[in-house]
Amino acid sequence: MRNQITEMFELKVYTEKSVFVGEVEDVLIDVESKKMESVVVGKLNQQLVDIKNYKGLKIPFRIIRSIGDIVLIRHLAGAFRPGDD
Amino acid sequence: MARVLARSLSKKKIVTNEGKMIGTLRNLVVDFNTGLVVDLIIYPDPSFDTTGYRMEGDRLFITFEAVKDIKDYIVVDRYLSRK
After folding, report:
1. Chain B nearest-CA residue for A68
2. What is the ipTM of this complex?
């Protein structure tokens, strides 16, 4: 599935347990491996205990399940704790 | 390891490794399944000779394979960028 990268901006990010995480603000690209490395998520859901008071999150591309009308990621509560990015 | 934010790339200039200006970046083609960056979509400069390049309307496509580095400019390989 080939798409333009700007189509990803402002997509809503949900986990597989249908928890709203935030909105895609930017995408980090690794120039050497020619891959999207992670997705920068903003407008975070402040109800999520693990990411309270965070302004933004970097979600690694490997935990993304699929991208369509929304971005669906694996439900990993531990990934949202401080110290991980 | 060079990593760049997609939004910081918008309107960046593309030059070949021999210093020829190609144009301005418009967008990137990515594969949502694999995460691979496939192509650069470029608005070529009016003075740039686009023969030998992949064109769709007024937009020029260059495979991301041709990208050598991205700093202030996006440098692409002269041979790999033609297809």
Report:
1. B32
2. 0.89
For residue range A7-17, list pLDDT tens digits in order. Answer: 999 999 999 98
Its pTM stands at 0.87
- CB-CB neighbors (< 8 A) of A71 in chain B: none
Whole-angstrom distance, CA of residue A21 vs CA of residue A44: 6
What structural domains and CATH numbers belong to chain A? 5-73 (2.30.30.240)
Domain residue extents for chain B? 6-76
Nearest neighbour of A29 by CB, restricted to B3, B29, B33: B3
DSSP B13-53: EEEETTS-EEEEEEEEEEETTT-BEEEEEEEE-TTS--TTS
- Closest CA relative to residue A72, chosen from A30, A19, A26, A35: A19
Three-class SS state of A9: coil
- Rounded to an integer, the average pLDDT of A45-54 is 77
pLDDT-derived band at B1 (thresholds 50, 70, 90) equals low
Fold that domain B6-76 belongs to in CATH: SH3 type barrels. (2.30.30)
